[in-house]
Amino acid sequence: MMFDGLRFVLFHIGVALMTPFFALLVLALWFMPYGLREDVARLWCCCVLFWLWLTLGIRHRVIGLENLPKTPAVILSNHQSAWETVAFRTIFPQRLSWVIKRSLFRIPFYGWALRALEEIGIDRKANRRALKMVEKQGKAHLAQGRSLVLFPEGVRNPVGELGRFAGGGARLACAADAPVVPVAVDSGRFWPVKGWRKQAGTITVRIGPPVDSRGRHSEEVNQLARNWIAQAIDGVP
Description:
acyltransferase; 1-acyl-sn-glycerol-3-phosphate acyltransferase; 1-acylglycerol-3-phosphate O-acyltransferase activity; transmembrane; EC 2.3.1.51; Glycerol-3-phosphate (1)-acyltransferase; alpha/beta
């Protein structure tokens, strides 16, 4: 137990030490092309995942990469831990933008870098205004060749649970005629929502066939994505 605690502390010390360096590098490149900033962010993500494996023995496998469309897409994923907020930048080959809580921008270094990466920060309490912001800015990011990542549950849920999906991501996809890529993760098996303990093992990421949003209502698209994720979660061994 004590050894596990020391490894956990060591992991967080390492992340705390490397984050300011990469964040300041992203900030230094603020007025340079977006690709340079995201490359730095991807490198930080790779370093964090390597350190996670080295200290806590958590790695991952990806199933379904062949399902990714060649065009920018709206990626809808279930949310079980902070792990996927780091790992997705290393898994998806496309340039990525994220829809996040606006409050994250206030976190020193990490939040500043998120702002420099032009992430879409929303106030979840301002529901209607948030939807309009996601649609307006999301369409602009898709037009620039970036895929959008959203966690439509809004919060992290433990293994075996899947929350209600907010409709902002599907609505954006339908407005932009962009495909929706459903993604299922089981990160909560090794990085639980509650508690500090983490368990060594292999996280599974399943990428589903894209849902064509053209000619469909956003509610249908949203439900199709949720149905696939629900089935994929049940299928994870």
